Amino acid sequence: MGPTEPTGPICDQRRPEAAGLLIVAYGNDLMGDDGAGPALAVQLGDDLPEGVRVIIRHQLTPELADDVSRSAHVVFVDARVPDGNLDAVLSPLVGHGAGAIGHVCDPASLMDIARTVFGAAPDAWLLSLPTSSMALGEGLSEIAADGVQHGISLLRQHMRSLGYTA
Amino acid sequence: MSQRIVIDPVTRIEGHAKISIFLDDEGQVSDARFHVTEYRGFEKFCEGRPFWEMPGITARICGICPISHVLASAKAGDGILAVQISPTANKLRRLMNLGQITQSHALSFFHLSSPDFLLGFDSDPATRNVFGLIKADPELARRGIRLRQFGQDVISYLGGSKIHPAWATPGGVRTPLTEEARADIKARLPEAFETTRIALDLFKKLLDKYGREAHIFGNFPSLFMGLVGPNGVWEHHDGTLRFVDSSRNIIADNLQARDYQSFIGEAVEPWSYLKFPYYKPMGYPDGCYRVGPLARLNVCDHMGTPQADKELSEFRSASGAVNSSFMYHQARLIEILCALETIEILLDDPDIMGDRLRADAGVNQLESVGVSEAPRGTLFHHYKVDRDGRLEFVNLIISTGQNNVAMNRTVAQIARHYVRGPKVEEGMLNRVEAGIRCFDPCLSCSTHALGQMPLEVDIVSADGEVIRRIAR
């Protein structure tokens, strides 16, 4: 599996004090591979370059928009519904969200909130991880576990490209 | 020809559900049902595990109410250890639950239901959401997010920032409150109070506009159940259970959670995975009762804090209980106010900074029931363990499930008022859904399933033929 090069982000505005890279990893580790995002964040460890911060959540919720808007860059890390692709994929977050924000929301909608409520949104990417099953149960499948390793590799490369070095 | 209309699935609630509306030969609504269509056997999944793990495991049933499960589970664990937790641990648990009530109610009011109130039930569904709200009233939307954030931060200060803070544990809690956290929470209270007051004033003004909805949305006599503290004070974590009727007559009081099977029965219907709990002495379905903010305000004698007590006396019907489910919204705001006042009191309590956090004990009882008031209502965790503490039996009675009979009645009542024949306007459907949203149900918890849903409406004739399907 080779790294996937990100293309340009969708940044349009930033808070003057916005700084650092925020990694938001989310998913439910009781639902099999849905926990791939949090697993990646845990395996990434605490030894991160200066300016990099990790938030682990069960799901995205609206108030995260405040944290997002205070960052210069953000990467959302999520499990992807099985689609035959066994690679982790890092791609710029483009467009607007579905707008159906309530108990949960999608990354693009969270960016919309950051932009409209908090007045700023950083450059954002989505790192999606491959899966094979999201049924009730703990632990990752081989596909998801490999995807996590690939995702870490992509993420570390991406951090370097953004200037976050150890 | 009789027909059936199905709203599948219902939006802006948590979990998987659909609504069927049955029409008779004249096109009038004869009945309606709120179906829950997803089920996963979470309780079985827990069997064989050490009970110590349960706060952490059950918290992961759902990302919406993790704290409620942590607290009810820890209390069930206290019972297995047969310990009384320290005053500091108890007050810290209470502080966390108040944070949970604040953040959950804020989300329900500002982001899930306010689009209906401020943009109108008949407004364009494409913009009848939080972004429509942001456009209409950006300051209110921002305040709503910040109030939720305040509640979340109270939780994070105590439980840490992990996915689900299994911070409350059998015997107490794991870590204390820091002085820095106490100072920050105190500093942010004034804004939280201000936002809550703005929302309360707004809702009371809107009641003039939505008098019809308030009259129709689940307005029927039923029982109400909730915890009450000493002297009948509003309670959310300790105390005993009380049932009142629709005139606020107390019909059962000082009930212990461990005896729940003697007063709560669970009926099953073939068309829903969600059970139908009922008050056992009255049978099913006559024993329909409601839980949650409206019920808690109906069962208590007073709130125990000055601002919330003033609101309660204004809220209450002179003739008895408040029976309209539409008033769940105002009840939520009054509970936020009470939560904030109580947080303020707790932060000045010397016990809150104590260092006696956790009792050490082993398995001393093989069965226990923990109860707590989740934002949506009373939550029971019932465990049986072997001598090594391994779970042999788990039963969770979830607040949303306890409102199931009432939610079905609400759907039927609204449908009878707004639906006439198979030509259904979107605003009608939204009102039916909004009736469900009054209860702020969390179907992830109540079915022990996980997920989020889109929306579909089916109109089906009595002989089973789908004659119209609306998807959105």
Task: Estimate what percentage of residues of chain B fall within beta strands.
Answer: 15-25%
User: How many discrete structural domains of chain A?
Assistant: 1
Largest sheet entry of chain B: 5 strands, antiparallel
Overall mean pLDDT of chain B stands at 86
- What is the level 1 CATH name of the domain at 85-219 and 325-360 in chain B? Mainly Alpha
CATH class of chain A: Alpha Beta
Rg on CA atoms of chain B, Å? 22 Å
CATH 2nd-level architecture of chain A: 3-Layer(aba) Sandwich
Offer a concise description of the structure:
Chain A is 28% helix and 18% strand. Chain A is built from four helices and five strands.
Provide tags for this entry.
heterodimer; A: 166 residues; Rossmann fold; 28% helix; disordered N terminus; B: 472 residues; Cytochrome-c3 Hydrogenase, chain B; 43% helix; globular
Describe the protein's architecture and organization:
The complex is a heterodimer of chains A (166) and B (472). Chain A has a single domain, classed as Rossmann fold, CATH 3.40.50. Helix content of chain A is 28%, strand content 18%. In chain A, helix 1 packs across helix 4. Chain A is of the alpha/beta class and 166 residues long. Chain A has four helices and five strands; from the N terminus they run βαβαββαβα. Chain A has a five-stranded mixed sheet, with helices on one face. Chain B is α+β, with helices and mostly antiparallel strands and 472 residues long. Among the domains of chain B are: 91 residues, no CATH class; 171 residues, Cytochrome-c3 Hydrogenase, chain B. A five-stranded antiparallel sheet of chain B has the order 3-2-1-15-16, covered by helices on one side. A four-stranded mixed sheet of chain B has the order 8-7-6-11. In chain B, strand 13 and strand 14 form a beta hairpin. In chain B, helix 4 crosses helix 5 and helix 7 runs antiparallel to helix 12. The longest helix of chain B is centred in the N-terminal third of the chain and has 33 residues. Chain B is globular and about 65 Å long. About 3% of the residues of chain B have low confidence. Classes of the chains: A alpha/beta (166), B alpha+beta (472). The interface between A and B is medium-sized, with 28 and 39 residues.
